[in-house]
Design brief:
Layout lengths: L4 H23 L13 H66 L6 H21 L6 H8 L3
């Protein structure tokens, strides 16, 4: 139903317009008989033109809305894929950095106090990756707020 929502609205509004216009001609213009289909060619043409415009507007709105939703879905798929690949790359990097840490621990002349700073950087990076994966609002502001909270 959501794919045809505006078409349905257009049809309903067009039908209501036709009804209101018929009632208006009967009661406000004092026509002798109630006409669903006007006998005047000009009146029929005017009503038909407005009804076609209303239904066409509904169809165009449905088409345009569907296109925008498809574009948004594609952006979401690209974002999700990018995050997944980035996650993979960064975890590979962090695993390789663990090898670097093991070598630094084995080295007698490596400053051991630097390993604490190294561990802090690795922990912060891992936490930022987790926050990036958990973004709920996929927008520039939402991503920045998730990764760099105030």
């Amino acid at each position: 139903m959501t794919h045809y929502r505006y078409k349905v609205v257009g049809i309903v509004v067009a039908a209501l317009f036709w009804l209101v216009d018929s009632v208006t001609h009967k009661f406000f213009y004092g026509e002798e008989i109630f006409e669903w289909i006007p006998s005047s060619g000009n009146e029929l043409w005017m009503r038909t033109a407005i009804v076609v415009l209303l239904v066409s507007l509904g169809a165009y709105t449905d088409y345009h809305t569907a296109r925008l939703l498809r574009e948004e879905d594609e952006k979401l798929r690209v974002y999700t894929s990018t995050i997944s690949v980035s996650h993979h790359i960064l975890h590979n990097f962090l695993n390789k950095m663990q090898l670097f840490r093991l070598e630094a621990e084995r080295s007698a002349d490596f400053n051991k106090s630097r390993l604490a700073l190294y561990d802090q950087v690795i922990a912060e990076t891992s936490e930022q990756i987790k926050r990036l994966e958990a973004v709920s609002e996929i927008s520039e502001e939402g991503i920045k707020a998730a990764v760099f909270p105030s």
